[in-house]
What we know:
This protein is of the alpha+beta class. It has 3 helices and 12 strands, in the order E-E-E-E-H-E-E-H-E-E-E-E-E-E-H.
Amino acid sequence: MNMNDWTYCQIQFQILDDGRGTSDFNGLANRQMWIRFIAQSENKTIRESIKLPIHTSSRIPLTPDKNSLAQKQVLTKLVDTLEYDGWEVVDEGSGEWWQIRLRRDTPYQPPQKAKPKFRDWLIGGIILIPLVIGILLNLSNFIGLNAYSHYSKAGLELTPSTSAPLVEQLVIIDLSNRELDPLQDLIPADLAAEDPQNAETVVWLDCETDSNWRGSTTNCAVTVIDWSEKQILDERLIEGEFTLHPEEGAPQSEVVGNRNNQAILDYLNKLPRK
């Protein structure tokens, strides 16, 4: 097959800062940062992984960590999805461990007519307005308008633990809104923090839903932190089960893209305690 009959894509990574946290003279060490892997073809993003919290400090570069099990899991999930879409791996990490190159047959692309410029402005405005509103809401939420805003990376230097994770009474924080996650009410009483605003162990729960025409699934990145030592004890990616979209006319109470709450609870309950 002629090389012109192939379309290639390359795995890259992105470092994201969505406004969670605050800035000071210490720079990135006080920002809530995230990492995700993306598949790009001809400067276009065709697939992307869920995002994961990433350790930030003046001494740690913002790059993928080959020792992170969670990062390896989401990268493998992204490659599996691309292979399901018809891509095949042709170069697997010959440079950096995450630099994977894939290819597939180039589909026929009929000529497309240029869209009128006023439509571009209209579409851009429709997309931009909710984005700006969302950013403002996130900023207001993480600057201290709720009781759990102090569970952030502001002023912290988080480093992976080198010993077995030992947890104390904990609080589970949903990073989408920096509030208590509903799972807090389901963990055993002796494991739940008596005062959630001053917990000894903090669990960050960051969930993201991946959807297609058939259904969706919600994967959750779980980060366990010894808050008194400002130290990450463990990280884990817990995948949800694929759930079909409800049929038309089904009750609104039907949940699409369930996360695997039981797996999250089992994982937390099995963590060794001090």
